[in-house]
């Protein structure tokens, strides 16, 4: 059975940029891409508009359809410009709320990946963890790949798995290693613990046996500046895909609550893969 990638799009530049990642992923895993554009009807709170509601909704739906019809060919052009015109792509225009519709489609259509872009200029945390991205990563069971607005496509050559080396991370770790084989990309696993952290026992030894012949390096760094350590690690090791088990989302959100100096010093333009429990 062919794998499926769901690509929600608002046809923004950030979204179109992320589409290249969706196409390249489809090429790597032999998948088809399903694009969806979800729209809502306007809220009408005026007292005397009831007699005009039908016309308002008709005009809105027609406008959405016309915009959608005009934008869809641009996605096909992106595929052809990247020599990926052979990828099977289908499109859907849906009336509803974005996150529930994404969740419903991933379940009904047995979607393997959701790939979506993020945009925003109000800081790193807002860019990566806007309302939609957070909800999709938290609520959707498929693998969710989030592409930052200014992240330009490059082949996945080095992956980072953020972990605490606990047994509940084992399934996510196996998923990361499966992707490592597909991309032919080595994996760095990283645990950052404060000096006061007494829970030093972990299952790295079990993972080493599990992945004896694969390219994986296990790291554990002690320090109180968790955010700085991770950001330095990303830069030092030339990481171009970060993977995390979704139950660590609070930890990961904390990662981006950093000082202005660090926001200016580090430009995080790396895709983030959320692996659900």
UniProtKB/TrEMBL annotation:
Pfam families: Usp. It comes from the Bacteria. CDD domains: USP-like. InterPro entries: Rossmann-like_a/b/a_fold, Universal_stress_UspA, UspA. Residues 1-148 form the UspA domain. Belongs to the universal stress protein A family. This is UspA domain-containing protein.
């Amino acid at each position: 059975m062919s794998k499926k990638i769901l690509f929600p799009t608002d046809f923004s530049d950030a979204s179109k940029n992320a589409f290249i990642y969706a196409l390249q992923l489809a090429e790597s895993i032999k998948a088809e891409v399903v694009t969806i554009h979800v729209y809502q009807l306007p809220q009408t709170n005026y007292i005397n508009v009831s007699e005009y509601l039908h016309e308002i909704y008709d005009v809105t739906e027609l406008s959405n359809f016309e915009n959608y019809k005009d934008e869809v060919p641009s996605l096909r052009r992106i595929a052809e410009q990247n020599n990926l015109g052979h990828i099977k792509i289908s499109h859907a225009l849906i009336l509803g709320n974005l996150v529930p519709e994404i969740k419903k489609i991933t379940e009904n259509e047995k979607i393997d990946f959701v790939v979506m872009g993020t945009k925003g200029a109000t800081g790193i945390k807002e860019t990566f963890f806007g309302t939609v991205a957070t909800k999709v990563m938290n609520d959707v069971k498929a693998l969710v790949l989030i592409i930052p607005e200014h992240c330009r496509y490059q082949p996945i050559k080095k992956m980072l798995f953020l972990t605490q080396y606990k047994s509940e991370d084992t399934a996510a770790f196996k998923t990361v290693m499966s992707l490592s084989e597909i991309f032919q990309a080595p994996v760095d696993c990283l645990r950052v613990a404060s000096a006061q952290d007494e829970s030093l026992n972990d299952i790295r030894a079990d993972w080493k046996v599990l992945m004896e012949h694969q390219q994986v390096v296990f790291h554990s760094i002690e320090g109180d500046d968790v955010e700085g350590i991770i950001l330095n690690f990303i830069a030092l090791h030339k990481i171009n895909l970060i993977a995390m088990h979704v139950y660590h989302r609070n930890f990961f959100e904390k990662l981006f609550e950093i000082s202005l100096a660090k926001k200016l010093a580090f430009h995080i333009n790396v895709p983030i893969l959320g692996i659900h429990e």
